[in-house]
Design goal:
Elements (H helix, E strand, L loop, with lengths): L6 E9 L4 E10 L2 E16 L5 E7 L10 E7 L3 E6 L1
Antiparallel strand pairs: 1-2, 2-3, 3-4, 5-6
Length: 86
């Protein structure tokens, strides 16, 4: 069984309206990389123990699992679906 490294690599941030932003980047799932846009808002700023400012964000998005080769396979006992790749 192959091991995949899932990752997100940012390519830039855009401001969208008052308090809204979009984080653009490359999302890799199971060895397939696609460009995605993650709309987000800043939820607050805090100082870390070393005096640096850290920002919290909240983001929501949807992706199509089939774009990354992730499909539902056969049903397991009790009709529970399992995930499989192409």
């Amino acid at each position: 069984m192959e091991k995949y490294r899932n990752a997100f690599k940012s390519t830039g941030v855009e401001r969208k309206g008052k308090g809204g932003y979009v984080l653009n980047g490359d999302l890799t799932v199971k060895g397939v990389t696609k460009q995605v846009a993650l709309p987000f808002t800043v939820t607050g700023a805090v100082k870390d123990p070393w005096g640096n400012t850290r920002f919290g964000i909240e983001a929501h998005t949807k992706i199509n699992r089939r774009d990354f080769g992730v499909n539902f396979g056969n049903a397991l006992p009790a009709a529970v679906s399992m995930l499989a790749t192409k």
